[in-house]
Amino acid sequence: MIALYDDAVARRFEPFATSRPLGEMRAGALLIRERWEMVLGVDSRGFVAAPHLHGFAEFDAPAFVNGQALAAGTWLVNTRALPFLDGPAIAVSPTALVVTIGGRIAARRLDGDMFDERILASLADGSHELAHDRALPDGTGDEAEALDLDGVWLDDVWDVIGTLQPLLQRDIPVLASRLSATTLQASSGASVTVIGAHPVLVEAGATVEPMSVFDTSAGPVLLRRGAQVQAFTRVIGPCYVGRDSVVTADRIAGSSIGDTCRVHGELSTSIFIGHANKGHDGFVGHSVLGRWVNLGAGTITSNLKNTYGTVALWTPDGVRDSGRQFLGTMFGDHVKTGIGLRLTTGCVLGAGANLFDTMPPKAVAPFSWGARAPYEPFDATKFVQTAERMMARRGVSLSEGSRVWWTSVHALCAADSRWPRR
Fold it and tell me: Do 231 and 96 fall into the same domain?
């Protein structure tokens, strides 16, 4: 089994670290948890992350296991490490393994039960470093079998954008082969057009309407079961469209769209974790949308400065230069925007923020509410009611446990001095 470990660096990947472990972030075509499950061939047992995530529950996500003993045979995985899916398979055997990516230890398998209180405490607070601590009873001495995988690391939150297209290029063929996806052929009546040498791969149950165009000159496209590409849409690879998601009537390029999303209007080099709604016109580029985000009609992100220089982004350690020329908005979970909202280059919107009318500053604290800064706090009860209503529209119920947990996160954020004042 797998224990997904968020180290101290991962715990500062805002605005997402407020409300989800990094293993539940989408990177390339998959959630990071799903990537490691596919590579290692075993299921996840739990996640070790910041204490405030105790109570996080989402679909098939594993449970919070901070401070709990880890059983022999458990893979301890650094969630910032992203192995490519087309690398060598790891045979599950009694032999303890160390997995490295780029010379850095990404995962190790315990060869004995791990009860050491010091190590458990360092895992719980994020200070444990797999690359340096040799005290873990996992057979990482000279006798350990080690495997170096090809992959990438997330060293900053914006790296999920920087690694997106390389991951999609290599994820899509592997996933398609496992799903027995078929290759879409341009129809003889020219009602569907395919341009380029890479394939359009379609899982059974996906729908492509007439007058759709796929440009695979730069990479492949994968449509999952229940996905719909509606008429007059141009999909540019590499691109992944998740289960039961709908893309319609514009240019969708180089993006990873999770399950049960609605995408209308231009989208470029962006990630939808899942269950997000962009149902209207408005450009979104080089951005990440957390789960249950809803963008009002005409919401537009800027992803390039007028000076063509690199984009700075707010982080818990202060505003930092990302080194990226293209970077849009990081939308935390449950963010809502009003119609016509404009968002500046390198914008960070904290979880649960509900904003409208006036362009917000580059960083907005979680659970902010209003037309312009300084914002009012979004009442916890009203936030939970809003979340419950949106989730019900997609057939998902908000459990009582999640209501309690979100209320506790709301209270924690109210006292968080790292964020700019509302």
Answer: no
